[in-house]
Amino acid sequence: MTKVNKLSTTKLWNPKSFIIFSVFFSFLPAGIMCALNYGRSGSQKKKWIFLLASILVFIALIALLPILSINTSIIFFSINIALGIILMFTQLKLYNKHIQNGGQSASYLLPVIIGLLIFSLSAASILYSIYVPKNALDYGENHLFYTNKITESQAKKLGDYLNSEGYFTPSSKVDVKIDKQDTLYILSLVVEGDYKSDTSYVQPMKAISRELSKNVFENNKVRIDLCNDRFQVLNSINVD
C-alpha cells in the first residue's frame, strides 16, 4: 500500500516536452529533466549517467562550435533536435507506465527557469567567442587577435608592423583584432572614452588606416573599428 501511494504522488515530466525544450532552450534542460525523471522513479544510477553525460556533451558542443568554419547555427539546432528525440524515446515507456500506475505530470516552472538560465549563459558564451577569436599573437602584454579569415602570416605581418612602429611597447597592454570581409580588412582597437561624439581622433585613425593599407595589406582598404574590451563596435572609421 505504501508503494502504491509513493508511485501515485511521484511526478515526472512528459518526455514529449523534451523536444520542445531542446528546440527553444537546448538539449541540456531536457537532459536534466530526463535524469531527474530517472531519479524520481528510483533509478539513481541512470540519473547520474544522464545528468553527467548531458552536461559534458553540452560543454563540448559549446567549446567546439566556435572553432568550426561551417554554419554552426544549423549544426547546433540539428544536434539539439536529434538529442531531444533520443531523450524522448528513452523515457516514453517509463512515463506511460508511470501514468498508468496513477503517477502525475510534473510542473514545468523549474525546467523553464533552468532553460532560460542555460540559454542566457550559452548565448553569452557564443557571443563572447564571436567577438573574441581564439587565434592570437602575443607581443609581451599586448595581444593581436585574428579570425579564421586571416592567415597567421598576415596576422604576424601586422603585429610586427605595429610592434616596429611603437604601437606595442614593453610597458603597454593593448588588445587589437584583425578580421576581413571580402577585400576589406577590419582592424578593431579597444578604446576608452567618448568616441561617438568626439571627432578629433577621426583624421589620425584615417592616417593609420592608409599606412596599414600601404605597408601591410597590399593596398587593400582598411576599416578601423573602435571597440570596448569585448571587441563590440562603438564607432567605425572608413577611409574614402
Automatic annotation (TrEMBL):
Task: State what protein this is by name.
Answer: Uncharacterized protein
Taxonomic lineage from the root: Bacteria, Bacillati, Bacillota, Clostridia, Eubacteriales
